[in-house]
Amino acid sequence: MNILIEQGRVIDPKNAVDRENTSIFIVDGKIAGLGAAPAGFVAEQTLDARGCVVCPGLIDLGARLNSIEAELAAAVAGGVTTVVVPPDADPPLDEPELADRLVHRGEEIGKARVLPLGALTLGLKGERLSELAGLRKAGCIGFSQAKVPVVDTEALLRAMEYAATFDFPVFLHPQDYWLSRNGIAHGGEMASRLGLAGIPVAAETIAIATIVQLVRDTGCRVHLTRLSSAAGVHLVEQAMNEGLPISFDVGIHHLLLTENDIGFFNPHARFCPPLRTQHDRDGLSQAVVRGLAAICSDHTPVAADDKLLPFGEAKPGATGLEVLLPLTLNWAESAGVSLSDALARITCAPAAILGLASGSLAIGAAADICIFDPEESWPLTVDAIRSRGKNSPWLGYMMNGRVKRTLVGGKVVF
Amino acid sequence: MSLTDSLPDAEAQCRQLAELIRPKLAKNPALVGIYSGGAWVAERLRCLLGLSEDIGLIDVSFYRDDFAEKGLHPQCKPTLIPFDVEGRHIILVDDVLYTGRTTRAAINELFDYGRPAAIELAVLADRGERELPVAPSYEAWTLQLDAGQRLALDRNDHGQLAWRLENA
Amino acid sequence: MHNPQLNSHGELTHLLSTEGLPQAILTQILDTAESFMEVSSREVKKVPLLRGKSVFNLFFENSTRTRTTFEIAAKRLSADVINLDINKSSASKGETLLDTIDNLCAMDANLFVVRHASSGAPYLIAEHLQRIGRGDIHVVNAGDGRHAHPTQGLLDMYTIRHYKKDFTQLRVAIVGDILHSRVARSDIHALTTLGVPEVRAIGPETLLPKHLDKLGVHVFHDMAAGLKDVDVVIMLRLQNERMNGALLPSAGEYFRHYGLTPQMLALAKPDAIVMHPGPMNRGVEIHSAVADGPQAVILSQVTFGIAVRMAVMSIVAGN
Q1: A136, A355, A385, B55: which sits with the fewest CB atoms below 10 Å from its CB?
Q2: Interface contact C48-B63, CB threshold 8 A
Q3: Alpha carbon distance, N-terminus to C-terminus of chain A
Q4: Mutate to test the interface with B, among C47, C76, C78, C111 (most CBs of B within 10 A)
C-alpha cells in the first residue's frame, strides 16, 4: 500500500533531520521518499500531518504485556512500535516454545513489534542457565533476570561467560538482593519520616560494581536497566569510559518524580527501583541529557486491587506505554532539551542499544512511524487508558502531546 | 430591647439575686455555677450569702444536645463538684436563661454524680423563649430580645461583672 | 497543602499522625483530655457524648492493651463498641483491606479505630472513605507499622504537661529502637510542634533512622552524654518482633549501654520523669528499680491514655 504522510514536521534524530512541512512517502511497508515523492508514486492512503510531528515509532526497552492484546493496543496508542518484553511473565520466559508463542501472538495481533527477552536462568531463579541459544533462535533479542537479582555471584559469572560465548546481550537490573529485600522505599528522609523500610543507594552501586567487574572478566555485553541514583550513573559512566560494552536506561518516572512524591503513602509512587532524591533525579536527568542513556517506560500494569493497598503491600510500578511520549516531552521541557534530542532517547538510542536498524526514517527503513500533535493536551483518566493497567501517579493530570497515528511496517495500526 | 438602651448593673442584680435566695439558706444549698458566666455569678453569690463551702463548677460540653451539628466545643473546662451530690439541695446558677437546653444538660450531668434532694435554678437574666419546660426559681431580670441579639456577661480585670448586648 | 486529617474548616476529622497537626489542635486535645480526666474520677464515668454512635475497633495487628483502652474510652463516651480482630477473619480469606472497610461502612459505623502492620494503612482508609462519599466516618490511627501512634504521642505529651507544665523549657530524651518505633515518631513530631527546644534521640546507630536531624532531633550514641540534664526520659521497648536482622548482638549488651539504670538516671535532672509506652522489658531497656521508682510515671500514662483517647474520639466525631 502506498501511503503519503503530508506536510508534517519530520524529525529523524538519527539522521539529524528536523524539517517543517515535509512529506513522507511509503511504499511496500518501507520509507521510499522524504520531502520529494519517489518517481511514479501514487498515494493510496493519505494521512494529514499538518501541525504534527512525524518521527520514528518509539522503541520501548521495557514493557510488560500481561494481557497482550490490550497492551499492544496501548503501545501503538502511545506511538510505541517496538516493545522489549522482560521475561518475568507467568510462567517466566525460559523455554524456546514460550518465546516462539509470544512472538507469533504478537505478529498475529499485528500491532507493535514484540521483542522478548529470554530468562537468563531457569525460572529466573539465578541458579541454572536457560537454553540461551534456543531462546535466541525462537526470537529473543537478549537475556534478562527482569528485576530478580542473581544472588549467587558465581552463577552470574557463568551466565555472563556463556552469553559472551554467543555474543548475546544481557539485560541486568542492578539491585543487591540483601540490601533491598526488606525495603520498600528509598532509604532517605521520606522513609525515615514515614516509617518505611529503606533501600539504600548502596543496593544499586554495589550491584553495578559487581556487574562491571564481571563484564571486565567475561567481555559480556550488558545493558543495565532502570538506574535510580546519581552515584549509580557515575559508576556506569566510568565503566563506559573504560570502553566496556555497557549501556543503561532510565525509567521515565524516575526522571520526573522523587521520594517526595510518596506524599501521604501514595501507592502509585511505589516503584522498583524506588524513587530517590532530587539529587538522584538530577543525576539521572543529566545522564540522559548528555546522551549516555536511553529512556524507557518500564510499563507495569497493576490491577487496582494490587495497588490500592498500604504502601508496603502495593505492587510497584506504573502504566507507561501511553504516557511515555508526553512524559518524555515534559522532561525535555524542564531539562532544556530539544524535541529532536528528546525523541532520540526513545527512538534511535534504544535502537542502538538493541542493535536494530529501526528507530530512524532513512530511505529504505521499515515504515515504523509515529505522528503526534505536540500541542494537544489530554487528561489522563481511567477511561483514556487502553492498557489494563490504569495505575499511574499522573491520573487526573493533563498530558501534553497526543499520538494521532501510528504505523508499523507501513500499516496504520492506530 | 435596642442596643442603645442602657444595660442594668449586673453587680446590683447579683445582690438582688442573693436576697431572693437568702430565705432558703436553711436548706444548706450547694451552689453550682455553669461556666463561665454562671460560675462568676455563683462565686459572687457565695460571698454575698456568706457560704463557706466551695462552689461547684459545671461544664456542659459533654451533655449538650447539639453535638451532631456543632461538634465538641473547642474550650471545655473540667467540671468540679467538690461536695457529695447525694441528698443535697442544689442551686444551679447561670447568667442568662434562654431556651433551657443548657440547664437540661447541667441537670443530666449533676445526676451522674448522685441523686440530689432537689435542684433549683438561679439566673441573673431570663430572656424567655423557652424550648424546654425549664423555669427559674430565682431571677433578677426578665427581658425580651430579638432572635439576632445576644446578651453576654463579662468580667473585667478587677473582677467586676457587666452586661454586654451584641448582634449574634 | 492538603492535610488529610483536617476538614475544609481546618478542624480535626481524622487522627492519623501527630505530624502536620497545628499546635492549636494538639493543645485543644490536651485541654479536652483534662476535662475527661475529671469524668474518669467520678463514680459514673460516663458522658452521653457519643450515645448511639458506633465505634469499630479494627485491629489488623493484635494488641489487647491498646484495644482495651480504646474500648474503655469509647464506652465512657456512651458509644457502642464493636471489636474486630481482622487477622482471624476475612483478611485471611483474601479480602482486601478496602473491601473490609466497605463492608463495615454498610454496617453504620461512625468511627474506625485502626491498627495495622503497614505504615500508611489508615491514610488509605481515610482517602477511600472520602472517595466513596463516606467522609462522615472518622478514622483514628491506633498504630500503623513504624509510622505513627498518635494517641500514644498525645498521651505522652499530656503526661509531660501534667508533670512539667511548660514545654518550652524542657530537654526530652527518647531512648531505644527509634528506627522501628511509631511511638517515637509521634512523640518527636508532637514535641517539636509544642515547642520543646531540645529533643534527643539516644541509641546505637543500627536502631536510629537516618536523617533524624531533619526532624529537629539531636542524636546521641553515648547514653551518659545524652541523658545529661534532661527533664524527661522516654524509654522505648526493644521490640524483638520488629527486628529482622543482625541489628543488635544481644539484649545484654544493649542493657549495658542503653539500659536505664539508677546510675544513668542520676545524670538527668533530679526531678526528671521516666516514661515508657509499655509493655516494659525489665532488665533489657529499663532496670526494675527505675521502673518501680519514684520518678517513673508509667502507670499514670495509662490513666491519661483513656482520657486522651476520649478527647480524640469526641473531637473528631463532632467535626
Answers
A1: A355
A2: yes
A3: 16
A4: C47
B52 assigned to some structural domain: yes
Report the candidate in C210, C145, A186 with the shortest Cα–Cα distance to residue C201. C210
Neighbouring residues of C8: CB distance < 8 A, sequence distance ≥ 6: none
Q: How many CA atoms lie within 13 A of A311 on its CB side?
A: 31
Q: Do A308 and C96 touch (CB under 8 A)?
A: yes
The chain C residues in contact with chain B (CB within 8 A) are: 11, 28, 31-32, 34-35, 37-39, 42-44, 46-49, 314-315, 317-319
**CA torsion, points A266, A267, A273, A274, in degrees to nearest 10?**
20
Q: Which residue of A has its CA nearest to C185?
A: A193
Nearest-CA distance A376 → chain C (Å): 29
Domain that holds residue B110: 10-63+84-157+160-164
- Is A235 exposed, middle or buried, given 0-12, 13-18 or 19+ CB atoms closer than 10 A? buried
For residue B120, tell me if it sits in a domain: yes
Contacts of A315 in chain C (CB under 8 A): none
DSSP string, A199-245: E-THHHHHHHHHHHHHHHHH---EEE-----HHHHHHHHHHHHTT-S
**Phi and psi dihedrals of C235, rounded to 5?**
-95, 135
Residues of C with CB under 8 A from a CB of A: 4, 19, 96-98, 116, 118-121, 123-124, 127-128, 144-148, 182, 185, 209-212, 214-215, 244-245
Alpha helices, H only, A29-112: 68-77, 96-109
Please tell me which of the candidates C35, C48, C317 has its beta carbon nearest to residue B76: C35
Chains A and B contact (Cβ–Cβ under 8 Å for 3 or more pairs) = no
> Nearest CA to CA, how far is C311 from chain B (Å)?
9
Residue with cell 525515615: A192
Contacting residues of A for C5, CB less than 8 Å apart = none
Say what the ipTM of the complex is.
Answer: 0.89
C119: closest CA of chain A, how far (Å): 6
Q: Does B94 fall in a domain? A: yes
What string of pLDDT tens digits covers the 414 residues of chain A? 899 999 999 999 999 999 999 999 999 999 999 998 999 999 999 999 999 999 999 999 999 998 999 999 999 999 999 999 999 998 999 999 999 999 999 999 999 999 999 999 999 999 999 999 999 999 999 999 999 999 999 999 999 999 999 999 999 999 999 999 999 999 999 999 999 999 999 999 999 999 999 999 999 999 999 999 999 999 999 999 999 999 999 999 999 999 999 999 999 999 999 999 999 999 999 999 999 999 999 999 999 999 999 999 999 999 999 999 999 999 999 999 999 999 999 999 999 999 998 999 999 999 999 999 999 999 999 999 999 999 999 999 999 999 999 999 999 999
Mutation for B interface: C12, C13, C42, most B CBs within 10 A: C42
| Alpha carbons A281 and A230: distance in angstroms, whole number | 7
Active site (catalytic) residues of A: 298
Number of other CB atoms surrounding residue B147 within 10 Å: 7
- Split into its structural domains, chain B has a count of 1
Q: Indicate which CATH number applies to the domain containing B107.
A: 3.40.50.2020
Q: Which of B116, B117, B114, B139 is nearest to B126 (CA)?
A: B139
Residue B77 lies in a domain: no
Whole-angstrom distance, CA of residue A275 vs CA of residue B77: 48
Contacts of C46 in chain B (CB under 8 A): 112
pTM equals 0.90
Cα–Cα distance for residue pair C207/C264, rounded to 1 Å: 20
Among C275, C239, C208, residue whose Cα is nearest residue C61: C239
Please report the DSSP string for B62-118 in residue order.
Answer: TT-S-HHHH-S-S-----B--S--TT-EEEEEEEEESSSHHHHHHHHHHHTT---SE
